[in-house]
Each structure stands twice: as structure tokens, then as C-alpha cells.
Amino acid sequence: MCLIAIAHLASTRWPLVIAANRDEFLDRPARAAHAWDDAPDVVGGRDLRAGGSWLAVTRGGRFAMVTNVRGLPEPHDAPSRGALVADFVKGHAAPLVYAEGVERARYAGFHLVVGEAGRIAAHVSSDAAARVIEPGIFAVSNAPAAIDWPKIAYAREAMERALQSDDIEPELMRFLTTPRGGPIESEVFVALPAMNYGTRASTIVIAAADGAIDFTERTAAGEARFRLRSPS
Question: pLDDT digits over 82-130, tens only?
């Protein structure tokens, strides 16, 4: 996952909104979003090489997502960053407790966001200690925590606009899937055929005030929709 924007308690109408793109080598084996065989309450994509995930959400509203970070040294025999996502959504640890427990130095560069819809969200990265995400709009990509790439600012702006719209999901999906034609620091939808690399999944998660949670993923193979929780 290479771009994440999250609106956490930024709207009374939608307590949680996630818009995220996963960029990866096209030949890395993965399974598109589905209810996991080993955890049926979890919906998300699955990396078939290491077994982790880039973004996953439970029917109870737990969520986790990860990006890599460019330019940081990679420890020898570093475990899969995707395991951080899978372990959180399959577990019961409180978000901040989980984030604080991540052994940051063990992993190649990463940003990790974990939380519970409508309650709490936390962020930890290779170069930033675990902290609670305050209510509002938060975004990360592949830059270190102290660097604000243009695409991160674009993502925050797109999320802010979408929260004011009645068509929040289509508006965010257009943002995620529209190429800008700029450098990697500015490009939201990446296509680098010469490197066999690009955006492989665009995902939107919307938790409404009535308790409904909807998950939409678009890939080259098509679009999948999941109702994780029905209105209360």
C-alpha cells in the first residue's frame, strides 16, 4: 500500500473513511479482497508470498493498513510488514497498545495505521514512535514521517472534499484511480510498465454513523464490494 488517507472522527456522518492505493510489483502473487479462510470476519487482500496484507478490516470494525517507506535501510532477515496488518485484525490488542508493541527496528521502512472504527486510531512508523491519531484527516505514503510528499497533500485535500459530498465513495475512487502524469512523489495512480510496477488495488472503506461499514476494492480484474456491518 503506497498511499493512505484516513478521516478519523472528522465527520458525524462518517466516523471513519479510508481511501488507499496499493502499489506493488505486478508479478508478486496476491489475492484480491475476500473474507479470509483463516479468519472469516476479516475482509482484505492477501499477499500470497508472505501471508500478510496491505489493508484489512473486520466485521467488528478493526482495521489495519501498511505502506513501505523508501530510502531507509532494510534489516537483515526483516519480517514481512504485511504481518503487522494481519496480526492486528486477527487479534484483540487495543490499537495504541499494539502500535507501541511493534519492534520498529526489526522491519524494513514502514508506516502502520491501526484502529477501531468510530473509536480510536494509531500510527507508528520506522522513524516515528506510536501515537494516537487525533480526530481529523491523516495521510501517509512512502515518504519518511517528517517529509510531506505532494501526493500526501493531494490525498488530504481529496478526503476533505469528499466529506462534503453526497457521493463520497465515487469521488474518492476517482481520485485514487486517476493518473496525474507526475513524478512518483506526486503520482496517485502509479503505472511503471518498464519496471513491471504500479497501483494494483484501490480501496475505500466507509463506516457510517448508523453502524454500516462498506468496503470497496477496484483492481485490474474488476470491482468488489462487501458490506461488513449492516446499519444498526
Answer: 999 999 999 999 999 999 999 999 999 999 999 999 999 999 999 999 9
Measured in degrees and rounded to the nearest 5, phi and psi for residue 98 equal -65, -45
Domains contained in the chain, number: 1
0.85 exceeded by the pTM? yes
State the residue range of the domain holding 72: 3-229
Q: Which CATH number belongs to the domain containing residue 160 in this structure?
A: 3.60.60.10
The CA distance from 79 to 16, in Å, is: 29
